[in-house]
Every structure is written in structure tokens, then in C-alpha cells.
Amino acid sequence: MDGKDGFDLQEFLPYLLNQAAEEASLAFQRHYKARYGMLRTEWRVLFHLGIYGRMTAGGIGARARMHKTKISRAVARLEARRFLTRCADPADRRREVLELTPAGQAAYRDLREVARDYDAALAARFDPEDAAALRRMLRALAGGDDPG
Amino acid sequence: MDGKDGFDLQEFLPYLLNQAAEEASLAFQRHYKARYGMLRTEWRVLFHLGIYGRMTAGGIGARARMHKTKISRAVARLEARRFLTRCADPADRRREVLELTPAGQAAYRDLREVARDYDAALAARFDPEDAAALRRMLRALAGGDDPG
DNA sequence: TGTTAACGGTTGAATTTGTAACTAACAAGA
DNA sequence: TCTTGTTAGTTACAAATTCAACCGTTAACA
User: Fold this and answer.
1) Chain A partners of B146 at a C-beta cutoff of 8 Å?
2) Which has the closest alpha carbon to B4: A46, A49, A28, A120?
3) Given a cut of 50, is residue A142 above it in pLDDT?
């Protein structure tokens, strides 16, 4: 399906990655949007806190590579919905330690199961070793080593 | 690096796909943004017309899975920069056939070479058969068969 | 024909994101 | 102490995207 000039957009990795990412995100989005009215930035923050426990906004940003304004707004919305609490760090009062409330933890656990099922469904489209190779290559493309 | 509860966000395919797509897009964006001040929607339209020749906005939308308002605005901007012309289809005056101007074709050919180089650089990170498998899996994940 | 529905595309308002400037708190050196 | 610089986070404003309503044209069909 390449064009008359021999360049095939459907094979161009950045394009292909975007199409695949959008498709995969959309299906998952239906869940967190329908159940909790969340945005993409919000479930990311929720998952970071659910997985790693107490973290600061900066810590989430470093791990998720999200700009701090996105996180600031996502945190504000999650706080308004009583999904998390903020607590100034007494050792450095610039920092705010974030933590999920019980309601936030419940939402996280719920969505985590959805995520597990969905991820399994996606991976099941391929041979196990292919799926593993896919994850490995995506990690390589995502670049920047884990800042943990 | 998974959390205390055993869910590893860094392995979750929708998340991983987004991280990889964002990273790959960003590097390519630097080129079309710096050289032509284009947005993502604009280079996509440009490439579709460069590759497939004359197309309508609807045709591009079907192929690229972009919403028609995005295309409408991208086309308007590309037209303002004299990169394409519109021409009402006499057989159906609702439709507008789009076509690159010589300037648009030059921009396309320029960016096409950048894209080729960049794609090759990305693929070179993996064994050839792995890169091919990656593309195949991404196509599968992108779903929706080519509406050509 | 006349009426109604569907299609291709545009526009305006609301939402979301990006960019830059900003506040407040800490840190280092004179 | 008094700068000066840096970091954590917020806010204001501009740019981009989404959503819904819209216009003109074509199709379906009584």
C-alpha cells in the first residue's frame, strides 16, 4: 500500500507507533472515563500512587515523563474528587507528598484489574515470545532509563 | 521495577506504546516544526497528499483515522501557506479534491527524506527480523484494516 | 416533484494542553 | 545577613483539540 513514490506511511515507525498507541489507549480510556470520568493524565497519576505509594508530584513527573503542569492539574482534580490527599513535607516545605485515599485506592485496584485483563488480551494476539520482544523493543524506543 | 502490589506500569502495553510513540514523534517533530512550522496534523496531511496524490479531506481522514475537524483545519493552514490547492469536484460539489502545489511537493520530498533516515535509525536499533516483527505487531495493534 | 435523510466539510464554544511567568522555600557563597 | 541561584509547584494566557451545531449538496423514496 505504499505510494507511487515508494514511501510507505503505514510502515513509518513514528506513525505506526502513534496509530497503535492511540488504538490501545482508546479502548482502555473507555473504562476509566466511563467509570470515573478520568483523563489520561489522571489515571497515570492514580496508578503511580497506587503502585509506588506515597510520592511527590515531581517524582511522578520524573517517572512518567509528564510535564509538571499536567501533573499539577491532574492532582488538583483527583484531590477534588477525594481520590488523594496532599501533605507538605516537613523536611522541605516546597514538596507535597501525595497519597491515595481509600476511595482512590479502590479506584486504582478496580482499574488495575481492567488494565491487567486488557493487557493480557492485547498480548494474547501474539506468541508469548513475540509479545515479550514487543515490550522489550518498546521500552528501548521509549528511551530514557527508569529514573528510579 | 514493579510496585509492591505486582502491577508493573512500565510493562502495560497502552502505557508503553504511548511512551514509545511520544518519544519517536518528538524527534521527528523537531524537523517539520523547525523547518516548516508544521503541526502533527499538517505533516500527516502533507504526507498523504505527497504519497497518494490527489485526495479529498474525507479520504485522508479515513486513511489516517483523523477527525474531520482536525483535517479541515490542517488543510486550511496548509492552503494558507500555499502548500496545497483545493478544487471542487464537479461530479459532487460537496467534495473538494486536494493537491499539493510545487512548494508543497518540495516540502514533502524534503521531509520524506528526513523520515526515511529517521525510520532507518530507529529500526537499526534492532535486528532486521525483530524490526520487521515490530512493524507487523504494531500494524496488528493499530487495527482497522487499510480502508484503501 | 417534494420531503427527508445522509454526506462532505466548516465553524464556534468548551475542554485540554503547552509555554512562560510567577510564588514560595531552600541552598550556597560573599 | 544578603544576595544570587535553584527547586517544587501553581497560575495565566495562548494554542490546539473535541464536541456539537451548522450549511450546502446529494441520495432515497413517497
Assistant:
1) 1, 10
2) A49
3) yes
Mean pLDDT confidence for B12-38: 96
Q: Is A53 left (phi over 0), alpha (psi -120 to 50) or beta?
A: left
pLDDT tens digit sequence for B31-87? 999 999 999 999 999 999 999 999 999 999 999 999 999 999 999 999 999 999 999
Contact B13 A119 (CB under 8 A): yes
A20 vs B16: CB contact, 8 Å cut-off? Answer: no
B120/B29 Cα distance (integer angstroms): 16
Q: Which positions in chain B touch A12 (Cβ < 8 Å)? A: 115, 119
Residue B87: strand, helix, or coil = strand
d(CA B79, CA B90): 20
Name the residue with cell 499539493.
B100
Protein-proximal positions, strand D, CB < 7 A: 7-12, 16-20, 24-27
| C-alpha cell at position B73 | 483545519
Band the pLDDT of B147: cuts 50, 70, 90: very low
The reply to whether residue A119 touches residue B12, judged by beta carbons under 8 angstroms, is yes
Scored b (16 or more CB within 10 A) or e, A54-83 reads ebbbebbbbbbebeeebbeebbebbeebeb
Which residue has 461530479 as its cell numbers? B91
